[in-house]
Amino acid sequence: MTAYDVIERKLRDGMVQGQMHGCLRDVGRLAGGYASTGAIQPMDLFQLEQLAASLSMNAKEGTDKWCEAVKFGRGQPIDWEEPQEYQRRESKELEWDSEIGGRHDTLKVVDSNWIQDEEIHEPNDWQPVNELIRYLSALFQSDDHVGYVTECWEKDGKHLPKKGCFDRTAGELIDQLQKCKGDIGAVIGDTLPEVGAWIRFNPFDGVGIKDENVSELRYALVESDTVEIPRQIALLKELELPIVTMVHSGGKSVHAVVRIEADSMDVYRKRVDFLYEVCKKNGLEIDRQNRNPSRLSRMPGILRNGKKQFLVGTNIGKLSWAEWEDWIQDLNDDLPDPEALDSVFDNLPDKSPELIAGVLRQGHKMRIAGPSKAGKSFKLNHLCIAIAEGWDWLGWQCAQGPVLYVNLELDRASCLHRFRDIYRALGREPKNVRNIDIWNLRGKAVPMDKLAPKLIRRSLKKGYKAIVIDPIYKVITGDENSAEAMSHFCNQFDKICAELGAAVIDCHHHSKGGQGAKRSADRASGSGVFARDPDALLDLIELEAEEPKKVRENRAVCEAISSYLDKHAPGWQDEIADDDAMVEKKFEPKAKKLLSHDQGEELNHIMMATRMPIRQATAWRIEATLREFAPFKPRNLWFQYPVHITEANLLNEASPAGDEAPWQKKQGVKKMSKTERVIERKNGFVQALEACSMDGPPTVTNMMEYMGLSKRTIMGRLKECGYAAPSGQIVKKEDI
């Protein structure tokens, strides 16, 4: 990891909306500090400037702020020293797998069925002094203090090593060994023949022999007493461990000193644990008592109970911990092997079952895109219900099963009420509410690459058919206009699909401006990755529907009048012609002639209650880009809070809103005066008040829900129209 690499990573990670200026300031100053000491070269600095500009919302502004920060940073030189947070350790990929329970199952790299044991024999031409010199030269620098033990004490019939020596350097020992004329004992002291001698494989500070006295955490010991020596050696070599020295213990094991290259005890522990786990997964059970950096190992060039403690080899396997770790990861990249088509051509696997008939398969991805206030979240809530109950959704049949709704936008109470409101609007009995789980994360959202493993861990045993994430702008990482950043973001959905076998469904917003002239796949905001990544993209566009809305209102009001007459004026069909019963303006006065005054007033309330939701409804068209299925004809909908209702005919000729040129939009539009706007506002409010009075005295809460306005706005309208709500119940001021 170079200084350039660190700066590049900090830029890519930090340039997110709301934090860009702070990132440019802090990272730019750091880059300037490194540049002033030569850790970053001028050409590298120029490339970083280009990167900062490309990641900024405004390239010129980003460049200016970056250059200003670099200039400031040059006045505070920083010498390059690789930060601990960027030094090599267990990779994020392995951490990802470990979090969802699959990491250690991927560490097996040796096939025990094919490995060949490696026999080894004691050397005939044994030169103990030379072996010890080779051992010391491989492990230590000349000024390193070396700890070793040649004396022991006995307990319960076992010989145990004493504290030994730790105040001599490797250079001193090598110099004396070269002059000892083959008498090792003259240099290190005589040993007990049946016991042998030990040496500590890490350098010490010359003061003590505890872990805290280790001056550098370079190595760890790999030893196994449960595997035959020929198999031990074969496995150690097959695993390509970065072995510095391998010594035959003169007993039933070999001692391999492996490069760890840690700069802290925390890193040392993690790397040793990882090393031992790799060995264990591949059939080499390690003695974990040897995990401490101050442990003793067998010294070569010494006799032990008539057996030679001899050097098997030096610098075996990979040359460094980093190289070995990369090698292990490459072998465990979780990528499938290529397969020959002819091997499966006549026996193809079954496709994933359809979750939404003709639209989406289970385990695939779907995105709903649309402008603000198109009811995208309501549509997703409705979809959750349809999957949980096995109902149709906007005309598409859904397979039944459990579903998880990840709520990132609404507070908990509002989200729960919305589900109940949709159930009620659908007019169907909720028989399988238990199939819906809601994960409320408003105010607790984290970037998608952090959320995905947490979501997977919580969902592994749930058997969800679908995971619905609403909305994704809350968890986007990086610049949504960057194809590279969004590819990484969308890959998190692939991981969820792969691990859980569930479909992942989300919603995203349109870019700004008119969308009518664009293809459906090009309307979503940000990089084109958003539209091209999902297996199914359903795009919503609003329609100009004033005339269809009038037709729909007329139809609904006439049906309401018919239903009322059926109840209160049986035989009314004999008095009113069929043609008149299809036109509200003709039907209403004739109907009232058959009713009493009070019944006429009641009918007025019913008509108003029927009329208002239709007037407030908006018209939409769904267009699709599908990867797995044939395209379908665009489907038209009414969004009548809180559900979308399919429309078969009325909207077929409707045009997308915003299709007109600017000069066309102003044609024929008469600007209302202030007085006219007040009158219209008052009339609308009184009509809504009448509709809310049908089930009893209206309240402020009723009006807020009916009109979709805040409490403050409702209170202002009450005052404007001569009403008050002293206890929440609305009354005329004159009646107080």
TrEMBL record:
Record protein name field: DNA primase
Residues passing through the membrane, by range: none
SUPFAM superfamilies xref list: P-loop containing nucleoside triphosphate hydrolases (SSF52540)
A UniProt-annotated Pfam family: AAA_25
InterPro entries: P-loop_NTPase, RepA
Annotated Gene3D superfamilies: P-loop containing nucleotide triphosphate hydrolases (3.40.50.300)
